[in-house]
Amino acid sequence: MKKTTSTLIAGACLALLANLACADQLADIKAKGVFTCGTLGTAEPFSFSNTQTREVEGYDVDFCKALAKSLGVKLELKLISVAARIPELQQSRIDAVIANLGWSAERAEQIAFSDQYFASEQKVAARKDSGFTTLKDLTGKRVSAVKGSSSEMLVRKVIPGASTITFQDPPNAFLAMQQGKVEGLAASELTLVKFRQQSESTVPIAILEPSLVLEPWGVGMRKEEAGFIKHVNTTLEAMEKSGEALQIFNKWLGTGTSYKMQRGFRIEPIKG
Amino acid sequence: MGSKLDFSVLSRGEYPQWIWHGVLTMFELTLAAWLFAMALGMVLAVVRMADSRVAKAFVASYVEYHQNVPMLVQVFLWYFGMPALLPHAAQQWLNAHNSEFLLAFISIGLCMAAYVSEGLRGGIRSIPKSQLEAARAIGLSYLQASRLVLIPQALRIALPTLVSHTVLLFKNTSLAMTIGVAELTYATREIESQSFKTVEIYLLSTVIYLGISLLIMTAGAGLESRYRIRTR
Question: Which residues on chain A place their C-beta less than 8 Å from a C-beta of chain B?
């Protein structure tokens, strides 16, 4: 037993020491010829496996591709879990995170955020038969959310007396509401629209107004890599000007898709 | 440099409260599930040793199910599946009374009861059958013989197994996180996602888990040496 414990501790220490400082990241990427982009792989339509081609694609992936192109190197996609986003980045196993990364002041202390490349409307839904129509109706009620999502903190901040229960993924949080374990479900508008379509014939849901917040998403990078951060922002701004960013939005979320969304934001620095 | 460890973040705002609340919930869940598992496990072990084929088959299938289906699946089944079978009023009652905790403790307790019963059965089987026969011969009923003669000895023999099952149960309470019970792992994940101080908060919860596991094992070792059956 003693031996196992000390081995464990030694292992943990080694892992911590492995945070080596590197030279300039921009030069490194060009020298390696590979840009490693961390993305979720499980979040339609941002990063998901196309069942036909078995390729990972989506809104986030297209931004990974555009960045690789701007650097003039090959793209390597690395699929990461929500919880692993920041450690993977800080330990330099990936060059940037493009993975539904919502900005918050506290998070911005740990990593650098690029200009917003997407803005996500966070809303709350309830069962139609509950008769709820606005956020106020949920005062003091229980609301489910996905672990690690920003909607969770927002619910407690915005709705007086509401408590949150978090689940591993959106389907579980949704099921908890369907079964009446919670009164509301907080998630991105996209997720809710999808659920509303799916549940129309069984237990219809209503999306409540107003939204919790408009959450800016950014590309996550290591704070000390000023050169790389600048390159990413310049590229994003160029994509906005050339219309490429709008094109990517319309391809995955626009009127031709099942989300039928209008782009209500533009690429610009995130205002703290 | 973002990779330097900085534990001061963990004392910020609501975080200490979350961690404390998480630890408390973890203790409550462990204790409730442990008591339930021990009591039920004992009953199951006795039933399995009885002379009824039906009872034996029942306990055997109970044990097979609970040992061979991942505990996470069992927890999900209890949380999302079982309440659906109940009448509407019962469902509403559950939802209003912290159904997450209740169903987590039931599912973890039921599952660990299977392990406990197997551990005890091993203990009981190691006691010569003649002891039971002798106990019956002096006029004890089957239950009396079990309670007074078999179980006290079986418990001692099974003690090391039971201690390791206790540690297993303790660690497995973290699965309750998946159905929204705000225990330590849940609090860890929450703090991680808000502060992005991944290494710090996971290190802290590792230390807490490790500390308590070691405590359980030490207590177990103490009990073992105290209650060992001394042989000549």
Answer: 1, 5, 12, 16, 19, 21, 82-83, 86-87, 90-91, 104, 106-107, 109-111, 144, 147-149, 152-153, 165-168, 172, 175-176, 179-181, 222-224
Residues A242 and A184 in one domain: no
Q: Same domain for A105 and A135? A: no
Give A-chain residues touching B87 at CB under 8 angstroms.
none
Contacts of A133 (CB under 8 A, 6+ apart): A206, A208, A209
Which residues are A214's β-sheet partners? A121
Q: Phi-psi category of A113—alpha, beta or left, where left has phi over 0 and alpha has psi -120 to 50?
A: beta
ipTM of the complex: 0.70
Instruction: Examine the pLDDT at A18 and tell me if it is beyond 50.
Output: no
A101 Cα distance to chain centroid? 4
> Is pLDDT above 90 for A169?
no
Domain B28-182 coded CATH 3.20.20.140: no
Residue B1 clears pLDDT 60, i.e. is over it: no
